[in-house]
Amino acid sequence: MSQPPRKPGHSALRKGRASLAGGIYLITAGTIGRARVFDDFPVACIAARCFEDSTVLGSNRMLAWVLMPDHVHWVLRLGIGEQLAASVGRLKSASSRRVNFCLGRQGALWTPAFHDHALRREDDLRAIARYVVANPLRAVVRRVGDYPFWNAIWL
């Protein structure tokens, strides 16, 4: 009797993932169970501060980000010697620790996996950043200015 084929799962997402110094990546990470953790304003503030913390970013540069109630989008330029998975891990770990401390809880906040898309030179970086920060318009608010949890270096 043959075994059913195994689903590759999250490990398949990592195959072929490259970390190119100076490369720009659009990254999406979700909360466990799509829990709307960041509907809570103080909790969202705590997480958002991590996305621009130089001790968390290392030599990376955050170009744009938006924190939604149950996920985050980052546009990140990798620094010299930085690895994509480790950089995303630091962002998720730091925000998890700080949010958990605030809520008096323990455990995972983010799903173990994340989605990334390496941007090419010909991609319109500003258009991608506009798309990222406009995410709340599709789900939360009528005007981007009414939503506090985003930033972009072009402002």
Automatic annotation (TrEMBL):
Domain Transposase IS200-like, residue spans: 20-135
InterPro entries per the UniProt record, alphabetical: RAYT_transposase, Transposase_17, Transposase_17_sf
Gene3D superfamilies xrefs: Transposase IS200-like (3.30.70.1290)
Pfam families: Y1_Tnp
Listed NCBIfam families: REP_Tyr_transpos
PANTHER family reported in the protein's UniProt record: REP-ASSOCIATED TYROSINE TRANSPOSASE
Protein name, entry field: Transposase
Lineage of the species this protein comes from: Bacteria, Pseudomonadati, Pseudomonadota, Gammaproteobacteria, Pseudomonadales
